[in-house]
Amino acid sequence: MKELRPPPKQMHRPSRSRPEIYTAVYRPESEMRRPLQLFNRMWQDLLASRELAWQLLKRDISAQYRQSFLGYAWAIIPPIVTAAGFTFASNAKVLNVGTTDLPYPAYVMFSTVLWQTFSEAITLPMRNMAQSKMLLAKINFPREALILSSMGQVFFNFAIKLILIVGMFLWFGMPVAASVILAPVALVHLVLFGIMFGTLLAPLSALYKDFAKGVPLLIGMWLFLTPVVYPVPSGEGLFGFFVKLNPVTPLLVTTRELATTGVLSDPQGFWWASLVALVGLMFAWLLYRLAMPYAIERMSS
After folding, report:
1. Over 38-90, what HEC string results?
2. 53 and 145 in contact (C-beta within 8 Å)?
3. Closest Cα to residue 110, out of 169, 186, 171?
4. Between 104-131 and 183-207, two packed helices, what is the crossing angle to 10 degrees?
5. Using one digit for the tens of pLDDT, what is the confidence trace for 30-61?
6. What pLDDT is attached to residue 26?
7. Which of the pair, 6 or 88, is modelled with greater confidence?
8. More confident residue, 130 or 281
9. What is the largest CA-CA distance in the chain?
10. Are the C-beta atoms of residues 113 and 165 closer than 8 Å to each other?
């Protein structure tokens, strides 16, 4: 008979304590800690973004006038309609704008073209940024390409409007001043001033739709403080003070005067506004560079 023995006691090894699990959160180091390297990378990315900016420019121009019966004519219709409306109101004595150095229809048409170019320099970077959300979230590319593409689109639209300006000179028999060769320089400064605001607002407009809806309202209010449909006020009233304080006033007026009369009414104000545009654009570019990683992170989440 087999002897029954109790089962052997199991040996329990002392359990080892589990290692603690640490969670490491990595955040991008601020690029402002090494400003020289930051500016060097900004310049290198600006150069590297030229080819991509060209491809984006062709895409945006094609999309802008796609499925449109009038096509490129939409670039010149707003100045014509605006000039016709204000000329009718002026001839009917409903609107008293004073004396202009050009025939009033030509004055309004030319000024409206310049104002429309300035407003596009603000809104196009915002619109292109909002349309490129998916591209920004999935592909790493130089973000400066979006700004360069917007700037190219502004000048392309102005090239179409230039046909209207040439026709205006021929229709009204206006002489062409020798200073017209300097008008593109003043125009570039006007566009850069608008691009400065567009670059500042582009990351915010991609995150919040309020900017896309509110900025056109502010541009409309800004129009009333800019001598587009009236000459620069000569009085010392409060309205004239704000019109002359407006930095767009000397940029737009100087561009118009260089292309028509050749007599500059406020050259000092033009150079001050140009300095603000150039310095402000560099500052806006820096903020755009620092803000884009955080904006893309919010768009991707």
Report:
1. HHHHHHHHHHHCHHHHHHHHHHHHHHHCCCCCCHHHHHCHHHHHHHHHHHHHH
2. yes
3. 169
4. 40
5. 566 677 787 888 888 888 888 989 998 888 88
6. 46
7. 88
8. 281
9. 133
10. yes
Check if the beta carbon of residue 168 is closer than 8 Å to that of residue 94: no
Residue 47 is encoded by which pair of tokens?
């150069």
Structural tokens at position 155: 């000048």
In whole angstroms, what is the distance from residue 282 CA to residue 79 CA?
A: 31
Q: What is the pLDDT of residues 12-21, one digit of tens each?
A: 555 455 555 5
DSSP states of 156-208 as a string?
A: HHHHHHHHHHHHHHHHHTPPPPGGGGGHHHHHHHHHHHHHHHHHHHHHHHHH-
Q: Which residue has the tokens 């605001």?
A: 197
Task: Look at the block and give the residue holding tokens 């003070």.
Answer: 241
Q: In 3D, which of 269, 228, 280, 218 has the Cα closest to residue 247?
A: 269
| Whether 244 contacts 254, CB under 8 Å | no
Query: CA separation (Å) from 238 to 97, 103, 225, 227, 235?
Result: 17, 27, 11, 15, 9
Closest listed residue to residue 88, CA positions, set 73, 105, 71: 105
Averaged pLDDT for residues 206-227: 86
Whether 91 and 105 have beta carbons less than 8 Å apart is answered as no
| Alpha carbon 68 to chain centroid, angstroms | 24
Residue type, 22: Y
| Model pLDDT for residues 54-105, shown as the tens digit of each residue | 998 888 888 776 666 666 777 778 888 888 887 887 777 767 777 788 888 8
Please, are residues 166 and 90 in contact by the beta-carbon 8 Å criterion? no
Say how far residue 94 (Cα) sits from the centre of its chain. Answer: 35
How far apart are alpha carbons 128 and 118 in whole angstroms?
Answer: 16
